[in-house]
Amino acid sequence: MAFAPSKGKKHMERGEAKLRITSLMDVMTIMLLFLLKTYSVSGALMKPAEGVDLPHSTVTLEPVKVLGLLVTTEGLFEDVPVESRRMIEGVLDLNDDAAVELDNLYAYLSQVQARNRELGREEKTVLTIQGDKTTPYRWILKIINTCSAAGFEKIDFVVYKESKYRG
Amino acid sequence: MAFRPSLKKKRQFEEAEANITPVMNLMCVLIPMLLTTAKFVDLALLEYMPPVLQEMDESTAAGAGEGTTESELLELRVNIAYEMLEISIFNAVEGENFWQIPLTYEGNFDFDAFRERLVDIKERIVGPAISRSEEIDPETGQLMIVSAFKYEDADQIRISAEGDIPLQTLIRVLDSAREYRDSNGVFKELFQSPALGQFQ
Question: Which one of 2.60.40, 1.10.12, 3.20.20, 3.30.420 gives the CATH number of domain A56-161?
Answer without folding.
Answer: 3.30.420
